[in-house]
Amino acid sequence: MIPTRRLALLAVPLVLALGSVPARAALEVGERAPDFTAPAALAGKPFEFRLSQALAQGPVVLYFYPAAFTQGCTIEANSFAQAIDDYKAVNATVIGVSGDDMDTLSRFSVTACGGKFAVASDSKHRIMKDYDVEHAVLPGVANRVSFVISPQGRIIYQYASSNPHQHVDNTLQAVRRWHAESARAR
Fold first, then answer.
1. Among 96, 135, 168, 184, which residue has the fewest nearby CB atoms (within 10 Å)?
2. Could you tell me the mean pLDDT of each successive run of 10 residues in the chain, 186 residues long?
3. 97-128 b/e with 16+ CB inside 10 Å = b?
4. For residues 123 and 121, what is the distance between their CA atoms, to the nearest angstrom?
5. What is the distance of C-alpha 6 from the center of its chain?
């Protein structure tokens, strides 16, 4: 018998190929981002990620993805890894979140993420539910949604698309825009 989680992950490519339920994000620009703490891995090393702690350092790009080691999620993670220096130039932290277990994410943080940014486990799906990004057809699997959160804890940008190719460009542009506006306000 195939475990439910594994069966759900096997269905992801089928749902995407058939035209999945559109990705959505209930949290809108201007809303307070729900704070969370989650087990995470960076370059294969486990630690506890705290959103509030990351926001104390600058804006946070929080991106949700369906499952580690799937084609689209690997493409997206590689893209974030390649752009990490651009995010760091504007003091932004990148964190990916999925429902994967920590063993899987530890490996994913080394391979697909290149050890450049952390990925966190939402195995109880609490963060997905708080951000309203849980897939409507596949419980426990996140829609592909990216948020940019200001250091004040407000969502300043959100982008929902099952296509992994534009999340980096769009969030980087939003962070740069926020950074420029913040510099002018000082």
1. 184
2. 48 43 65 97 98 98 97 97 97 97 98 98 96 92 96 96 95 96 84
3. bbbbebebbbbbbeebbeebbbbbbbbeeebb
4. 6
5. 21
Which pTM was predicted?
0.86
Contact 120/49 with Cβ under 8 angstroms?
Answer: yes
Residue where the block lists tokens 């708080």: 130
Structure tokens at 2: 């195939």
Separation of alpha carbons 94 and 118, rounded Å = 7
Please tell me the distance from the alpha carbon of residue 98 to that of residue 108, in angstroms, as a whole number: 11
Place of tokens 């982008």: 159
DSSP secondary structure string for all residues of the chain: ---HHHHHHHHHHHHHHT-PSPP---PPTTSBPPP-EEEEEETTEEEEEEHHHHHTTS-EEEEE-S-TTSHHHHHHHHHHHHTHHHHHTTT-EEEEEES--HHHHHHHHHTTTTTSSEEEE-TT-HHHHHHT-B-SSSTT-B--EEEEE-TTSBEEEEEE-S-TTSHHHHHHHHHHHHHHHHHHH-
Sign of CA dihedral 20, 108, 76, 101: positive
